[in-house]
Design goal:
The chain is mainly α and 249 residues long. It is built from ten helices and six strands. The strands form two sheets. Strands 1-3-2 form a three-stranded antiparallel beta sheet. Strands 4-5-6 form a three-stranded antiparallel beta sheet, with no helix packed on it. The chain binds zinc ion (ZN) (2 copies). One zinc ion binds next to helix 5. This is DNA repair protein.
């Protein structure tokens, strides 16, 4: 086991930070720690990890007045979250609690919390981070902090229960809409088939003037079809299907 794997910072750099953290070098150097001890120790000092720019954090001189993570009191809070959302949270806690600290798009806020466009556009109600939209160059993506969205939505709808009730109400409206749409479609189909039937008959009549009917042999007149009189014979045009009826006296 390489000890380097369990130490995520460079001791020589720590000396330059004017920080208030004192690490007993001999303790780290004695090399007699078990893997478990190393891991445990490492967990306790991860707050000394380098940031994204590969720099050790700059500690403020007055640690007492520095903003601290509201969850764990670490002073290594996410500066962007503080600046944009006025939210004091460190990167670790942010990662650990997506329920609170994940970011929601405007669409998600509308779908999950039933917030309106005007509410979401009001910076006084909800702060947001603007990000370039990968799909629309001129339309920036707006990202909202989940716990803030939830807080506002609970206030708006009367708590979590109120929000759930609103969800049920909307589902019902959707279902009614769906069954109405279904009915409408059925009616449309009925209307269309009826219209097609009329068109077919109309065309048949129109077509009559464009061709000489080619009449079949007379048929019927023997009483085997209840719909017709016994003394009625019929002929059918082989081209347009038009039927003639003749009564035989
Ligand atoms: Zn924290
Ligand atoms: Zn015909």
């Amino acid at each position: 086991i390489n000890r380097k794997d369990y130490i995520q910072y460079d001791l020589s750099e720590i000396k330059d930070t004017n920080g208030g953290f004192i690490i007993d070098k001999s303790e780290l150097d004695n090399g007699k720690k078990t893997l478990e001890e190393w891991t445990k120790e490492n967990q306790n000092i991860t707050f000394l990890n380098k940031n994204d720019n590969n720099e050790l954090p700059k500690f403020p001189i007055d640690i007492d007045s520095a903003p601290k993570c509201e969850d764990c009191s670490s002073i290594l809070i996410d500066e962007e979250f503080l600046k944009i959302y006025k939210c004091k949270v460190c990167k670790n806690c942010k990662k650990k609690n997506p329920d609170r600290y994940s970011l929601l798009t405007k669409t998600e806020c509308k779908q999950d919390y039933f917030l309106t466009e005007s509410e979401l556009n009001d910076v006084d109600i909800l702060p947001r981070k603007e990000k370039d939209n990968p799909h629309y160059k001129y339309n920036k993506m707006k990202l909202y902090l989940r716990y803030q969205v939830e807080e506002f939505a609970f206030k708006k709808w009367g708590g979590e229960d109120g929000l759930d009730k609103e969800w049920v109400r909307r589902e019902e409206v959707k279902n009614i809409k769906k069954s109405k749409e279904f009915e409408k479609k059925l009616l449309e189909i009925r209307k269309r088939t009826r219209a097609e039937e009329f068109t077919r008959r109309f065309k048949a009549r129109e077509g009559a003037s464009e061709h000489q009917h080619d009449w079949s042999q007379a048929f019927g007149g023997n009483g085997d079809d209840e719909k017709y009189e016994e003394n009625m014979i019929r002929r059918k045009c082989k081209i347009c299907g038009l039927e003639t009826e003749e009564i035989i006296f």
